[in-house]
């Protein structure tokens, strides 16, 4: 069961929902663009639905306006297996751990020998075989205040701010799998919160968190925006002894879908 009480599937529920299905927004083959596995050919399984609403979300149609087709686990596996050169699968979203069926999919992928990365906001824990938990805790700067809300009304701000950090879920995720903590950074003002969160998490987690496990990633879903943020974020990584991660897919393909 999820640790967080913030799970909400209302925006992806429907009469055509299969009992063992997942709402799939995209399923495609590309290069991993972020983190320690950047550049690795991978099949991406992107689920729809999220319990948070980052104002800069780069997968808008999984959160603010979710779109999807319901596929059962066998149908997803059939699609994944078409990409014969890929042995890495990335389960992403939205928030993929919102859906209980994600566990069945991860178990089936593990049985077939795939390396699995789960890209998660760290607010939900599920007991599942995960090779790399790519955990991206959301900072205050992600909150969709009325002036930053892409829909303009700010109705998600209070809920997002309430639910964006769950230390218990974060600790369990990093205790159960190899992990990376990937922070989306806008500028230097994000660093005090990152440092405070790391201090809190190190106190409650039963495994060490090395500075090498912490990745700073520039905020930006387009090449133009990355031009504004990446140099400063790279300098922050060097200043604090953390790792810098590019957004390779944005550099290569800008904001094109299925990348």
From TrEMBL:
GO MF assignments? 4 iron, 4 sulfur cluster binding; carbon-nitrogen lyase activity; magnesium ion binding; S-adenosyl-L-methionine binding
PANTHER family reported in the protein's UniProt record? 7-CARBOXY-7-DEAZAGUANINE SYNTHASE (PTHR42836:SF1)
* Occurrences of domain Radical SAM core (ranges): 37-255
Q: What class of enzyme is it?
A: lyase
Secretion signal, residue range per the UniProt entry:
none
The positions annotated for binding substrate are 31-33, 46, 92
Q: Where does [4Fe-4S] cluster bind?
A: 50, 54, 57
Q: Where does Mg(2+) bind?
A: 59
Q: What CDD domains is this protein classified in?
A: Radical_SAM
The protein's assembly and partners: Homodimer.
Role description: Catalyzes the complex heterocyclic radical-mediated conversion of 6-carboxy-5,6,7,8-tetrahydropterin (CPH4) to 7-carboxy-7-deazaguanine (CDG), a step common to the biosynthetic pathways of all 7-deazapurine-containing compounds.
- Name the domain of life this protein comes from: Archaea
Note describing how the cofactor binds? Binds 1 [4Fe-4S] cluster. The cluster is coordinated with 3 cysteines and an exchangeable S-adenosyl-L-methionine. Binds 1 S-adenosyl-L-methionine per subunit.
Q: What is the protein name stated in its UniProt record?
A: 7-carboxy-7-deazaguanine synthase
Pathway annotation: Purine metabolism; 7-cyano-7-deazaguanine biosynthesis
Enzyme Commission designation: 4.3.99.3
Q: Species name for this entry?
A: Natronorubrum thiooxidans
* Catalyzed reactions: 6-carboxy-5,6,7,8-tetrahydropterin + H(+) = 7-carboxy-7-carbaguanine + NH4(+)
Report residues binding S-adenosyl-L-methionine: 56-58, 94, 136-138
Basic and acidic residues composition bias: residue spans: 1-12, 146-159
Show the segment(s) annotated as Disordered.
1-20, 135-159
**Gene3D superfamilies named among the record's database cross-references:** Aldolase class I (3.20.20.70)
Q: Which cofactor does it need?
A: Mg(2+); [4Fe-4S] cluster; S-adenosyl-L-methionine
């Amino acid at each position: 069961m999820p640790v967080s009480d913030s799970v909400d599937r209302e925006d992806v529920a429907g009469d055509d929902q299969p009992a063992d299905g997942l709402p799939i927004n995209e399923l495609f083959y590309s290069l991993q663009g972020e983190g320690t596995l950047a550049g690795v050919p991978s099949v991406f399984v992107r689920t729809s639905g999220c319990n948070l609403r980052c104002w800069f979300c780069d997968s808008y149609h999984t959160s603010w306006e979710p779109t999807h087709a319901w596929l059962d686990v066998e149908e997803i596996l059939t699609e994944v297996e078409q990409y014969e050169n890929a042995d890495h699968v990335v389960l992403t979203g939205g928030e993929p751990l919102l859906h209980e069926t994600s566990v069945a999919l991860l178990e089936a992928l593990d049985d077939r020998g795939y390396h699995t990365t789960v890209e998660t906001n760290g607010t939900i824990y599920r007991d599942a075989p995960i090779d790399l938990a790519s955990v991206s805790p959301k900072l205050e700067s992600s909150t969709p205040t009325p002036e930053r809300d892409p829909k303009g009304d700010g109705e998600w701000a209070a809920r997002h701010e309430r639910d964006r950090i769950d230390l218990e879920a974060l600790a369990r995720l990093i205790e159960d799998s190899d992990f990376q903590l990937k922070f989306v950074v806008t500028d230097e003002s994000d660093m005090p919160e990152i440092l405070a969160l790391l201090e809190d998490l190190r106190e409650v987690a039963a495994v060490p968190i090395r500075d090498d496990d912490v990745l700073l990633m520039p905020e930006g879903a387009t090449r133009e925006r990355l031009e504004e943020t990446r140099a400063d974020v790279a300098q922050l990584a060097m200043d604090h002894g953390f790792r810098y991660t590019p957004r390779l897919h944005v550099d290569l393909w800008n904001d094109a879908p299925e990348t």
